[in-house]
Amino acid sequence: MAGSNTLVVAFARRFGIALVITTVFMTGAVIVEKYVENQAFNKIEKVDVETAEPATEVANYLLIGSDSRAFVASEDDAATFGSASGEAAGSRSDTLMVIHVDPVKERAVVVSFPRDLWVEIPGVPLDENHCSSIQAGKCMSKINSAFSNGPDVVIQTLQANFGVPINHYVEVDFKTFQGVVDAIGEVPIYFPYPTRDIHTGLFTPAPGCHLLDGKGALAYARARYIEYYSFGEGGWFDADATADLARIKRQQDFMRRLASLAVAKSASNPLIAVEVVDQVVQNLRIDENLEKEDLLSLAQVFGNVDPSDASSVRFVTLPARNGFAGSLSVLYVDDATAAPVLELLQVSAAVAEPTTTTLAPVDPVAAGAGVATTTTTVPPLPIFDQDRFGVPAEVTAPCV
User: Fold this and answer.
1) Would you give the distance in Å from CA 272 to the centre of its chain?
2) pLDDT one-digit tens code per residue, 52-95
3) CB-hemisphere CA count at 13 Å for 368?
4) What is the topology classification, in CATH, of domain 18-185+243-375?
């Protein structure tokens, strides 16, 4: 990608997390180029991965939010993120996104790949340590397990299953995401009822608008098993009909909120940008071919966009349907509706203008097939079963 000698760079970031990366690019905070070139960029860990050479300035960035606890070195970190050994050992992609960037049009498409997608994992041994199932000589597993074999395997998996070329690779972890949120400030999130996820530690005892710090935001972003409390029945009940797909919707909503907050705060305090970059580079990993000029080109795309404007940055979830692989609950790609989404990621094509007829949001519950596609901000917790939970709490500022 062509570089530019500007004095700007977007916060480097992924939401999970890859959340952080998209969020950082979207904020458009201004910092001195000399700081980026001489300090921040040189601190970023480079990894050797095989990426496709972009034929044009249009390129695909693979953003991985790793659930690795390799950084855990203290009791405080272990209490917050989990131990680096035991059940949480190893690495999986907690969040997987591909950002398709068109610097000429200053537009981007962010496509989320649900972690439970049932796919072929190429280039790994055909055994139970690498495959959930072996079918017709192919290693089959959920897509998030590909990362445990290294970033190259994730790239090969996207190419083999979806025909998506990857030009650059970016990876962040839990601690980076939490640090970025704390650097920017508490993010307002609406909860219609008392809410929890016992797996991530998310807990809001009262409904309404809540301000989430880094720890709370991480618990919210990772939540896949949201429960609401029913005062009428005196117990907790599932709120997510499609755990991973519902989580992606919440993540996309959170990304816009965090980015909007960062833009507002950095306008009055430019040092916030420096603090965010400091947080990001500590645990950021990028491919060795990603140059400073590429980041500056990304800054041009994301530096002037309104994070709340869906016409500048589109968020799309790869359509999928619920199913089983043996006894394992998985998601299968919905080929018919996924085709136009995957077409957006072909680097030979520029990012198209958003329309109101293409990739319209689909309610997975109403559709009855577990298919979820979104191009707009949606309510982060959309299921309001008033018979069980009562009338949702009023949405008040700053959550409106």
Assistant:
1) 22
2) 887 677 889 998 887 654 544 455 545 444 444 554 444 546 78
3) 0
4) Aminopeptidase (3.40.630)
